[in-house]
């Protein structure tokens, strides 16, 4: 987290500028749509005549786990550092209340619940090789912690878990994995922890839809897991480069074994197939 006032001001200025560019781009797009008199429709609606057969995953709670990626303040709270670029999507899809429902019903169903968090330590900020999103994250100081052996300053920081989730995550039963550093679980112990619980079905939710969620999906599929995405329990940035949620949703339709809503997932958990 910020160590001095100048660092805080620098980050705030950066995020304000980015949010301004995003708003201007959105306004321009709206104006163009009006000028063209294009019909309004839900950009996230499934195609009326899909070419692909939907995945046929059927939930079996005896071998399933809920995996939630980055359920942290910096991504899901209006106080978080990434809120100017992800807040619209988080709010639009009701991600926080939907995740509360998923946590609650998963606990009642007795399935494994695991968290794949994102933390950065000071040495991570010295990386010599960085891609655009890495540069963005390091510039604003998202998910910063003092170090892996210290919780000093962790409580109520941007790296901390959302208050709404804490009673589920900190119940002594939820598996809190080591952090993933880029997007997928290749560098943390999440696949090992799931295998040790004899889990081979995953209900996947969290942030960011087009980065960490999609990367976890791809890796789990390559490892032979069966994976369903909860489509209204994920969100992504909306910036001039594109709508990350729409990008992810398209790929989820191609790859996921299941693409479910929170309501559908809750119903399946209650049935305890």
Automatic annotation (TrEMBL):
Keywords on record: Hydrolase
Alphabetized GO MF terms: hydrolase activity
Transmembrane segments: none
Domain of life: Bacteria
Domain Isochorismatase-like: 64-238
InterPro entries membership: Isochorismatase-like_dom, Isochorismatase-like_hydrls, Isochorismatase-like_sf, TAT_signal
PANTHER family: PEROXYUREIDOACRYLATE/UREIDOACRYLATE AMIDOHYDROLASE-RELATED (PTHR43540)
Name by which UniProt lists this protein: Nicotinamidase-related amidase
Organism: Paraburkholderia atlantica
């Amino acid at each position: 987290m910020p160590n001095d006032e100048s660092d805080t001001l620098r980050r705030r200025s950066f995020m304000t500028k980015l949010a301004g560019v995003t708003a201007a781009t959105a306004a321009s797009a709206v104006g163009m749509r009006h000028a063209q008199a294009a019909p309004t429709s839900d950009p996230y609606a499934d195609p009326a005549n899909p070419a692909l057969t939907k995945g046929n995953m059927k939930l079996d709670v005896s071998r399933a786990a809920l995996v939630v990626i980055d359920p942290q303040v910096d991504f899901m709270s209006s106080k978080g550092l990434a809120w100017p670029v992800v807040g619209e999507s988080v709010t639009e899809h009701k991600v926080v209340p939907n995740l509360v429902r998923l946590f609650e019903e998963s606990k009642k169903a007795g399935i494994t619940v695991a968290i794949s968090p994102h933390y950065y330590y000071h040495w991570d900020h010295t990386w010599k090789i960085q891609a655009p999103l890495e540069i963005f994250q390091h510039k604003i100081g998202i998910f910063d912690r003092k170090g892996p052996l210290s919780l000093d300053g962790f409580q109520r920081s941007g790296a901390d878990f959302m208050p709404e989730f804490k009673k589920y995550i900190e119940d002594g039963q939820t598996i809190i994995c080591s952090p993933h550093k880029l997007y997928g679980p290749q560098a943390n112990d999440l696949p090992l922890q799931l295998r040790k619980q004899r889990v081979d079905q995953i209900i996947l939710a969290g942030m960011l839809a087009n980065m960490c969620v999609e990367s976890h999906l791809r890796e789990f599929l390559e490892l032979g897991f069966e994976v369903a995405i909860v489509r209204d329990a994920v969100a992504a940035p909306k910036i001039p480069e594109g709508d990350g949620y729409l990008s992810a949703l398209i790929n989820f339709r191609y790859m996921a074994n299941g693409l479910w809503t929170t309501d559908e997932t809750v119903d399946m958990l209650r049935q305890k197939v």
